[in-house]
Amino acid sequence: MLKTELLNPVKTWDDQNAYEQTVKQVVAEFEENFKNFSVNDEIVKAGPGF
User: How far apart are CA 20 and CA 4, in angstroms?
Assistant: First the structure.
């Protein structure tokens, strides 16, 4: 049986602040990298963001 906390990634981290910082960093890196591609605005809006 699957542990329900695995469905919510923040619950798998001991340090909630570290999780939040990592999420923000990954989103920022994704957005920066995405600038290298020429895509429709709808696709950009569908990407991660917090």
Answer: 20
Q: For 15-42, how does the pLDDT look when each residue is reduced to its tens digit (9 = 90+)? A: 999 999 999 999 889 889 888 988 888 8
Domain span holding position 23: 4-45
Which has the closest alpha carbon to 10: 2, 1, 31, 21? 21
**What total of structural domains would you count in the chain?**
1
50 within a domain of the structure (yes/no): no
Q: What token pair was written down for 22?
A: 């990592």
Only one residue has tokens 């340090």, namely 15
